[in-house]
What we know:
This protein is mainly alpha-helical. The protein is 80% helix and 0% strand.
Amino acid sequence: MLQNSTVVNATDYRAAMGQLLVLYTQVDHLIMEICAERIATAPDTAAKLALAKQTGDESRHVSIQNTWMEKFGVDATPLITAEQQAMIRAHFRDLPWLEFLADLYLCVEALGSEAVEKIVPLADPGTRESLRVPLSDELDHVAFGVTRLKQELATLPAQQRRAFVACIPDRIEALTEVFHGFDLGVPTLFTAVGADYRRLCEQLDLRQDELLDELVA
Length: 217
Ligand SMILES: [Fe+2]
Ligand SMILES: [Fe+2]
């Protein structure tokens, strides 16, 4: 069980869930921009179409979340600063295609949406409903990223493929550290909505192992 045994205070819950929604929406907005930028340089039509579809999906997520946040009475002040956003966009802009797939789809999309999924059972009905469409689209995005990454890896010589996969945990760790360095108080927010943060991290580690197994299967 992810649920924390401590009783969740209703005021703290509302404020913390509001902040988590702000964060999720900001990340979706960033992904929308990152995918839109990548369309032009994506290696083929299939990739361009997937990125274009995802750009539209993320735009829909931002709009759904914005509508819900207004209704929920969230303080929508951005948590990720403009400077940090620029840093994230620059990181993805400079990545070669394979590294782009690994960072965006394994780390941000797969592990990010896994963390959001874990919040769903703890959420109030309105928040849960607001996450329904976005989370179902994220499955699609992760499926594209993993399939495409597998496809690209299959074209590499075995040694190069193994070396790339071996580096993925370090890539994820580095990105996670950058995110933690933003000091957004994420552990406190998760705890305030009733999640066991340490357990959540363990579950994310397991998901990461699962993704890596899928890549080499
Ligand atoms: Fe999204
Ligand atoms: Fe997504």
